[in-house]
Each structure stands twice: as structure tokens, then as C-alpha cells.
Amino acid sequence: MKKYGLALIGGIAVVVAGWFLVDAKPVVAKTEQSTAVFDSQGKLKLPTGFREWVFVGAPLTPNSLNNGKANFPEYHNVYIEKKNVDAYLKTGTFPEGTVIIKELTRVLNPTFPDGSRSEPSGRGYFNGELNGIDASVKDTKRFAKTNGWGYFTFGHHPRPYQQTAEEAPATECASCHQSFVAKTDMTWIQFYPLLRDKPE
Amino acid sequence: MKKYGLALIGGIAVVVAGWFLVDAKPVVAKTEQSTAVFDSQGKLKLPTGFREWVFVGAPLTPNSLNNGKANFPEYHNVYIEKKNVDAYLKTGTFPEGTVIIKELTRVLNPTFPDGSRSEPSGRGYFNGELNGIDASVKDTKRFAKTNGWGYFTFGHHPRPYQQTAEEAPATECASCHQSFVAKTDMTWIQFYPLLRDKPE
Fold first, then answer.
1. What is the pLDDT of residue B163?
2. What residues make up the domain containing B139?
3. Per the structure, how many domains does chain B have?
4. Interface mutation vs chain A, best among B82, B84, B127, B189, most A CBs within 10 Å
5. For residue B174, is it within any domain?
6. Residue-level pLDDT at A34
């Protein structure tokens, strides 16, 4: 009897262990999504999972304040994974493999010449349609020529976005980062309160 | 021998199961942070963990476009936990216990009369100092008088924020939500592309 009892306990325990393995799977998958994935041609696959990264800021360059043609129309919502935010706060630099996402959204139907509109909360700007994704990836070997960062655009237009993107020419993205923010690891820390100001 | 073998397997399996239990703890802790916590006087404790919730939009009502006195100065960054975003997309209503966070940030040192400034990405608005937190909590029993939602402000000023907040008078918050967005579960879905537009 004792033998069967032990076999039973062993069996139950294996089942329980198996259940936790299954339960743990989504966490593993989430970690994988946060890594830059390149296809066989060296194109970056559209990152997923960034909606649960830390939102660090939303510079807004309305078309209406930029002769109808903003470089990034119009909100640029920026996301960085929490572990990389924490590392930057500790070291002043981003770890290898850091991915930064910039998702654009249009402003909602402007009624004033400056692109703003009036709502119960006041006159200002409100989020219109999602309008494109850019990504930057830190890989000091792969992108050695551009200070360790590669830049990618998945299109500045409403969804669906491109599923893959090749590295943008240095003149299109990296050169501006090199000119203005080389000292802050090629990123616009001056616009991100969580990274710029003293921690909470 | 067989008996000891089974006991050993059983023991290992229990240890393995235990390890997965321990490993699962951080997820549980994160879930706890996302729940509204009230103190003995019924005040809401300042929610934590929201920086890893889903950012859904950033209405911007610059002081400069609102006679120097915006109701919410000036960016209002809004966060909702992913499971509640998913539930809304499925059902058109938020689950009991949903917490919505609105964190304010000032605009960065304006140089134009409309509150904007010029940067390499164009003329517009950029995130200044973090400037306060408001929260709303869905609890149809506790807040039955205000359509099931309670509203709280932890101060509209730079950090440190208040650590607890009592429910705001209905005339201060709930009445505006009731007047304008009662049909979308008291929330400003029309400004949140992920909730307003068709899913990705």
C-alpha cells in the first residue's frame, strides 16, 4: 500500500509541476518578444509586446505647426522596457539589445489653425489615429558605424504597419541623433522625465 | 529499493512544484499592486505598478491655450492595466476593480505664445516635469451614486505626490464624466486609439 501511496504522491507532484510549467510559459514568451529579431536578410521584425513597456514621453509636433509636414506626424509616443529604463538610471547608458519604440498618432480632427480643438478638459490636442512605428536597437557590433544604434521605420501611416524594416540610411536617422544626443547614448533623454529627472 | 526510488521521485517532484510556486510569486505581487487599496479611513493609497500598464493616450491641454490655467496642466498621460484593456475591447465595459491612472506632466519651457518650442524634430510640445496623479476606480457598490466610479486626486504639482487621497466630491470629477461619457463606461474612450479604433 505504502508503495502505491508514494507512486500516487509522485504522480500528483509531477502533474502539479507540469501545471506550473504551462503557467510559466507566457512570461517566457514575453521576454522573447522584447528582443530585436532580424530575419535572414537582416531586416528587423516589427517588435511586439511594447504596449507593456514603460511609456517615457510623448513629444508632439503637430502638422499644423510645421507647415503641414511634420517629420514625425504628430504625437511620438516612446516606449522602453522597464529593465532597460532601470539600467539607464543606474549607469547612464542602455544595455546591449535595448529596443526603443516610437509610435506615432495623429492629432484628433483639428478645429483651430494650430491643430488644436476644444473639449470639456480644455483646448488642446487629443490622440487621433495610430500612424506608424519607428524602432531603434542598440547593438554595438552590428551598428558600430552609427554609434552602436540602428534605426528602422515601419512606415508613417495608419495600420497595418510593415512587418519588417531594413536599417534606415545613416543620413535619415542616425546623423541627427549623433549631432544632438550623442552624449546621452543617442537618445532624447531631455524629453523623458523618468530618465531625465531624479527617480521617484 | 523500488519504494525508496518512488519516495525520491516524489520528493524531487515536490521540490520542483515548490520552485514553480516561488517563481510565480512576482506575478502575484504585480497583480496585488494593480488593485485599489483603501486605508481604514476609506482613502485610496497611491497606486503603484502603473508604469507597466498600457499607455492609452496623452491629451494635452497646454496652460498657454487655456488662459494660463488648464484644468489638467498639461499633458494627461493615461494608463490602464492590459487585462482591463482586453476586457473592454471584448465587452465594451470595464471589469469591477479597474483602476485608471492619469499622470500629468508640464510642457517643457515654452518659447512661443502657444506654449510650444522648436527642437530638431520640429515645433511642438515636449514633456517637462511630472506634475501630479489622478486615479479613477470602478466599484459599483462603493461608488453606486456616481455611476460605479470613484475619482481621486493625489495633487496637481511636482513630486512627491500625496500618498493617499479621499474620494473627490461628485461635482469636481464625476459630474463631467456623467455629462459627457456615461455611454462609454464613464471613460474618455474617444481619445484612446487602442480602445476607440478597431484592434490591431
1. 96
2. 28-196
3. 1
4. B127
5. yes
6. 65
Here the cell at position A115 is 491643430
Q: Is residue A16 part of a domain?
A: no
**CATH number of A95's domain:** 3.50.70.20
Of the candidates A59, A63, A28, A11, which has an alpha carbon nearest to the alpha carbon of residue B77? A59
Cβ atoms of B130 and B158 closer than 8 Å? yes
Q: How far is B39 from chain A (nearest CA, A)?
A: 22
Q: Is residue B15 part of a domain?
A: no
Residues of B in contact with A179 (CB under 8 A): 120
Residue B35 is predicted with a pLDDT of: 81
Contact by Cβ (8 Å): A103, A154: no
Helix axis angle, B2-33 to A2-33, nearest 10°: 40
Query: pLDDT class for A190, splitting at 50, 70, 90?
Result: very high
Q: Which of A9, A71, A128 is facing B122, going by the closest CB pair?
A: A71
Higher per-residue confidence, B28 vs A44: A44
Helix, strand, or coil here: B118?
strand
CB contact under 8 A, B72 and A122: yes
Residue A138 has pLDDT above 60, yes or no: yes
Q: Are strands A149-153 and A127-138 parallel, antiparallel or unpaired?
A: antiparallel
Q: For residue A61, is pLDDT > 90? A: yes
Count CA atoms closer than 13 A to A90's CA, side-chain side.
8
pLDDT for residue A160: 93
Q: Cβ contact (<8 Å) for B59 and A191?
A: no
Is residue B87 assigned to a domain?
Answer: yes
CA distance A45 to chain B (A): 16
